[in-house]
């Protein structure tokens, strides 16, 4: 550093050398904040890799500048603290680089932050060496001379050092000491280089921003007090869910109060947003079907009550969203199939799309994803309200004896009630595209049947009254048979040893979902700790982590063992909290649970 800015020791007399060295080395040494840092041992230059287009722009800028201003030789181009182009001999470039990043640029950045040079530096740039800038002929006397060897030189020479900066881009020039310095020459350079350098700096900024972020769409952003969840369901349309999150201040922390343990995992909120859109699409259609004036009102009327009605927790059912199927014996299942066939033959306008007992599906006639959305609507919204009505006695007589239409909610008692039928956009199992239908739902004795009616069909009250008279007694008999079998199955299940370990089964093909029974009514079987939920969510979302056949076992610091097994499109997760357990014991317990709970389900042996 001394040699660059002051020359060789031998160039000074004995009387001069002590004074010159003291004036240079004392502030230099004391300004260095040394620590056990590898950069103080291995001293190098941080280069900035750029894409071809950005680097080509820098090279063209340097070439044009040297052609138009031959007095100025561009020796380096720096962005932030990384070099893009170097025109000095390597050792001299290292010394100049250290001067820039350790001394000059930090002071300049501090000035810009304080606002002293923001206007000039950000808009058109300015000379920062000499530090006061170059505004007149007199300022040229302040230019510093350096002793360096340029890349094409054979020996060290003396030059004036000129440094220009704009928008985090810094360019260093040398001017031969034999050149007669003229202020007009520098003013012309400033007018030329300012806009050019600003454009290149903007290009580099954009390149670095694009490189920083993944090519995948951003799904979540978190600040101290809020979490933002993003989802693009249709081209040109984004949904954003904003959730306030609790946080602990220093004052609260000092007295032992903590908030934040109940924060819901981001994956749960993202899946909530996706489910909300699918529900909107089923009952309202696509966003693009509405005008700009309509879309905000329609969305507010739909999403506000839907989102606020959901009671979110760290529940695996909010991440792995599936359908709970009810296994039946052959005779009972055959009765259901015969009922559906006879109904569709006698009433061809009505297509049975699902048969549900309690909250478990027995028959599904929709495309899988649409069935999931309808299933969620039934078990999360419609059926709980209906059960509450039945418990209160408002609809017990009709619902328990012969059944009734529960969608529309008021029932169908006249021709006018048919105007209240809701239209849905769904794709049935035998359809090739989504179509619009009327949705009709009938219920008796915990059995619920959903129908679709084509919107082109002329609705007649007599048609629905006839259906009610036919379906009521038939469905009551089937519901009684299923109820007896469910009671028998419940007794058999109760005799099994209750395990504290939790398991979840999921089939990607038909979205079948099964979980361990809850230990108590107040303790859902699928409610788990956020960190455990996050692990399962990551395994489930990154299907390649397990592959077609695979197994993974993860242990958390608080003694949770999470096991994930995959066989084709079937997944099985077991959560065990066991202190002092080893890998073999966990694997044996998982195998035991798998054999006990997944009879008939083949998992590839590991």
Which short descriptors sum up this protein?
606 residues, alpha+beta, Beta-Lactamase, six-stranded antiparallel sheet, 15 helices
What does the model show?
This protein has 606 residues and is of the alpha+beta class. It has 4 domains: 43-212, no CATH class; 221-314, no CATH class; 330-493, Beta-Lactamase, CATH 3.30.450; 502-597, Beta-Lactamase. 42% of the residues lie in helices and 22% in strands. The strands form 4 sheets. Strands 1, 2, 3, 4, 5 and 6 form a 6-stranded antiparallel β-sheet that branches. α3 (52-68) packs antiparallel against α6, α8 packs across α9 and α8 packs across α11. The model is unreliable at 117-122 and 252-261 (pLDDT under 50). Belongs to the CCZ1 family. This is CCZ1/INTU/HSP4 first Longin domain-containing protein. Residues 501-593 form the CCZ1/INTU/HPS4 third Longin domain. Residues 76-192, 354-470 form the CCZ1/INTU second Longin domain.
